DUF8060 domain-containing protein
Amino acid sequence: MNEEKETKETKDENIIVPPKVNTKEKKDTTVEDYFKGGLFVLLGIIIAISALKFYFTVDSIIYTWFKQEYVPIIQAFYNLIVIVVSLYILKSYVLKKKEKK
């Protein structure tokens, strides 16, 4: 590894170039990697569809279980809970990504 800094001269100034750092070599992608990626995408789609169906099912359960005058209040609390949980999951995911870097 060349630890010394190289100096390149231009017309008016000297530019210091940091030493070259070896980056991680990328592993060749295999059929197994493509299969795992496709499976991950497929399961993500299935989970998203199930989450949407669950969301709308709870909405119809609210109409069934509660009196008509309380439905908007219960729906507001339910939507608030969904938003808070979604934001928490997004925050946790983003923080995990930042910690890994």
The first helix runs from residue 31 to 65. The two ends are 24 Å apart (CA to CA). The mean pLDDT is 79. The beta strands are 6-9, 14-17.
